[in-house]
UniProtKB/TrEMBL annotation, chain A:
GO terms for cellular component: plasma membrane. InterPro entries: Cyt_c_assembly, Cyt_c_biogenesis_CcmC, Cyt_c_biogenesis_CcsA/CcmC, Sortase_SrtB_target. The chain crosses the membrane at residues 17-39, 59-80, 92-112, 124-146, 158-179, 199-219. The lineage of its organism: Bacteria, Pseudomonadati, Pseudomonadota, Alphaproteobacteria, Maricaulales. Belongs to the CcmC/CycZ/HelC family. Its main location: membrane. It is a multi-pass membrane protein. Residues 4-181 form the Cytochrome c assembly protein domain. This is Heme exporter protein C. GO terms for molecular function: heme binding; heme transmembrane transporter activity. The gene is ccmC.
Automatic annotation (TrEMBL), chain B:
Belongs to the CcmB/CycW/HelB family. Keywords: Cell inner membrane, Cell membrane, Cytochrome c-type biogenesis, Membrane, Transmembrane, Transmembrane helix, Transport. It comes from Maricaulis maris. One of its GO terms (biological process) is cytochrome complex assembly. This is Heme exporter protein B. The lineage of its organism: Bacteria, Pseudomonadati, Pseudomonadota, Alphaproteobacteria, Maricaulales. The keyword Membrane applies. The keyword rRNA-binding does not apply.
């Protein structure tokens, strides 16, 4: 299936169908999710109305991590099978993932102020997400610095794959690090269970985020593929023009 | 093995011939730990408490400082191609290269780290543990810097890019190495665990990073 859709034309046909589907789904799910999260779910018995930040924050954090996994998988597929489309996918996923990471950090900070009394707490999870942002930035900076498209693709793939190994070790080490100085006053959300009245809006928002990310990625993938074709056509036109000039002279 | 020995020696001699050898990282390290108290203030208790952490942090920066030289020149003058064509296993070769540079340039870091920690008012035992931990961290730090350096080889002003790529990868080794000194200072029995974890990261990096560096080097010649 992988190689079936790595054909640019087939991918284009598929993308043309999937883009509106993902877009419409995202729109509907966001409509329902936002309505549930902000107007039709009970305030938390401990956190009050600020619990509503969770519905924006948790899906963003989940997307930040899921998209890095997708970036690494796309890089792996490119590295092994050399499908150009997989590389383009990695290229377009990175900035979207970084944007979700920034959103997660930002909303987490907004949530932390009323709940923990501080904008930023050096706890294990927040620090890991901050490191994740650095990993995204490093990947994007490396790709941007390499002019040769093939070098950027291969080198980026190696970095993205090393990054997943690194993030696992970072997660462990940061947990270890914060356990040396565990702040005692932090109130945490993760009680044993989350009530279904909160779970539903959260699940719908998570789906909405997923559809939004899918829509953005497919849209950007298709425009990148089109851009490649335009470049190829331009090159051919220039080539033909040069040949004509030579024939005239 | 003689080819690897030659690469090791060549790298060590190059570091002394072109880059001032161990003087560069040592001077940088000294400058960094001189500036920190000027920014933080001279309160002895505070300086003693942060001393082990500052030593680990400054050692990390010193390793990054020379990371662009390792593969940048080889990429520019074609040596990297010759390395890959030489028939010697590339991962062994890059390991010898990274270790050659590290052995020639980074050995003063634990020594200055020990003296620096004492200057910050850290007692002798935790200062020694911190120095030992930074010694244990050097293989991991220089291999990670080598990996980032190989990815960014030959890019103009690659220093910043290398730092951005290498920093997230250096998080674990920094945590364990600085944590060893910190725990020893606080009388926490986890100092030994931290020291051993630092060693574990260094061993893991020695086992894995050469493949990554070799792949990175090859990808930049494609």
């Amino acid at each position: 299936m992988l190689s079936y859709f790595s054909n640019p034309q087939r991918f284009d046909q598929l993308a043309r169908i999937l883009i509106p589907i993902f877009g419409a789904l995202a729109l509907v799910l966001f409509g329902v999710g936002v309505w549930l999260a902000f107007f039709n779910s009970p305030p938390d018995y401990q956190q009050g109305e600020t619990i509503r930040i969770m519905y924006v924050h948790v899906p963003a954090a989940y997307m930040a991590m899921a998209l890095y996994a997708a970036l690494a998988v796309a890089s792996f597929v490119y590295f092994v099978w050399r499908h150009a489309l997989a590389d383009t996918a990695a290229e377009v996923i990175a900035p979207i993932g970084a944007a979700f990471t920034i959103l997660a950090l930002f909303t987490g900070s907004l949530w932390g102020k009323p709940m923990w009394g501080t904008w930023w707490e050096w706890d294990a999870r927040m620090t890991s997400v901050l490191v994740l942002l650095l990993v995204y930035l490093g990947y994007m900076a490396l790709r941007a610095a390499l002019d040769d498209a093939q070098q950027a693709a291969r080198t980026g793939a190696i970095l993205a794959m090393a990054g997943i190994l690194n993030l696992v070790i970072v997660k462990f080490s940061v947990d270890w690090w914060s356990s040396l100085h565990q702040p005692a006053s932090v109130i945490r959300l993760d009680g044993p269970t989350i009530h279904s009245s909160q779970l539903w809006p959260l699940a719908i928002m998570a789906l909405a985020y997923t559809c939004l990310a899918g829509w953005l990625i497919l849209y950007r993938l298709r425009s990148q593929a089109l851009r490649r074709r335009v470049r190829a056509l331009q090159r051919r036109r220039d080539h033909v023009a040069r040949q004509r000039e030579e024939a005239v002279s | 093995m003689s080819a690897l020995g030659a690469v090791f020696v060549r790298e060590a001699r190059l570091a002394w011939a072109g880059g001032g050898g161990a003087a560069g990282p040592a001077a940088f390290f000294l400058a960094a730990i001189t500036l920190a108290p000027l920014a933080i203030g001279p309160a002895p208790d505070l300086l003693a408490a942060i001393g082990p952490g500052i030593m680990g942090f400054a050692a990390l920066l010193s390793v990054l400082q020379s990371a662009d030289r390792l593969f940048g020149d080889d990429h520019g003058d074609g040596t990297a191609e010759l390395y890959l064509l030489s028939g010697v296993t590339p991962s062994w070769l890059v390991l010898a290269k990274v270790m050659g540079q590290a052995a020639a340039t980074l050995w003063p870091l634990p020594v200055i780290g020990l003296v620096g920690a004492l200057m910050y008012g850290v007692p002798v035992a935790p200062a020694a543990v911190g120095a030992l931990a930074s010694l244990a961290a050097i293989p991991a730090l220089s291999l990670i810097a080598g990996f980032a350096g190989a990815l960014a080889a030959g890019i103009r002003r690659s220093g910043l890019l290398i730092a951005l790529i290498a920093t997230p990868m250096m998080v674990p080794v920094l945590i364990f190495a600085a944590g060893a000194g910190r725990a020893a200072f606080e009388g926490d029995e986890r100092a030994l665990a931290n020291l051993l974890l630092t060693l574990a990261v260094s061993l893991g990096a020695t086992a894995l990073a050469p493949f990554g560096i070799a792949a990175a080097l090859r990808s930049r010649l494609a």
